[in-house]
Amino acid sequence: MSSQPIERELRVMGSTAILQVHGGTVEMLDRAEFRLRELESLWSRFRSDSDITRANQAAGHPVVVHEDTLAIVARALDACRQTEGRFDITMLPALLAAGYTRSTVDDSLAPIVPGTLIGQSALVRFDYAASTITVPEFSAIDLGGIGKGFAADIVAEELMEGGAAGVVVNVGGDIAVLGRPADDPTGEPLWIMGVEDPHHPPAHVAVFRLVTGGAATSGTAVRKWTTADGSTAHHLIDPVHSQPARHGIVSATVIANDAATAEVCATAAMMMSAEAAIAWLDGILLAGLIVTESGDVLRTNTLKDFLV
């Protein structure tokens, strides 16, 4: 078992993932990488054999899925209620209509799904006893707004259960941290992280510290494309308008008790004006910041407690 942190970088879930284990082994990294790839195989809408694609293509009928898929769908439905519908996994038909039909990894076309209805999260059903989920008829689901964060949480917890002293699991900017850094054997364990400036990468708009928990950034700078009429579209669909969100925000970063909650709330924040997003985050007692199209940086009241 290494006394120094060991690290691995890989491509998974359409993004770069970084696994850092303190007080661990290479075998732990191997297992963590295997789990991330397994979760991708279950949840990717670009795989014809994934749980999500099979459920979408059988919309209206129960489909047997892995226990991890049951868990993330249940968490996603809670998130929809908690965000008053600003986060909604049934926006896939609108996302496809907006033009996000090809994988960012290999440019392959996503499997065809028959759904056309959106805003159907309240009708998604899951049955733990039967290990099934049922996508509403004429609808389709996508876990892109929660999958990376939920995966980071799962892998971080499993690494700690396997004996690591501390871990950082970063899946495309959705980050889970647990335990203690190897270079901080005494005192309060602190993990230092930066928030990239979307207008001037790789410069940072803020640097903050975490003891444990999660952080995530949602934004429009990465997954975007040019439409047939020459306009620019992105992957964050506003449930109110069924179109890519256009509220003057380039990125939203949220700190929470876990990466999945941070990812969900960062996505939900993108569906409001910058001022409304900050007020909403303050209201639910989460720390975060918003970067606007004009370059302004707005911070929640509690973010100061995390800043370095």
Automatic annotation (TrEMBL):
<keyword id="KW-0274">FAD</keyword>
<dbReference type="InterPro" id="IPR003374">
    <property type="entry name" value="ApbE-like_sf"/>
</dbReference>
<dbReference type="GO" id="GO:0016740">
    <property type="term" value="F:transferase activity"/>
</dbReference>
<keyword id="KW-0808">Transferase</keyword>
<dbReference type="Pfam" id="PF02424">
    <property type="entry name" value="ApbE"/>
</dbReference>
<dbReference type="GO" id="GO:0046872">
    <property type="term" value="F:metal ion binding"/>
</dbReference>
<dbReference type="InterPro" id="IPR024932">
    <property type="entry name" value="ApbE"/>
</dbReference>
<keyword id="KW-0460">Magnesium</keyword>
<protein>
    <recommendedName>
        <fullName>FAD:protein FMN transferase</fullName>
        <ecNumber>2.7.1.180</ecNumber>
    </recommendedName>
</protein>
<keyword id="KW-0285">Flavoprotein</keyword>
<keyword id="KW-0479">Metal-binding</keyword>
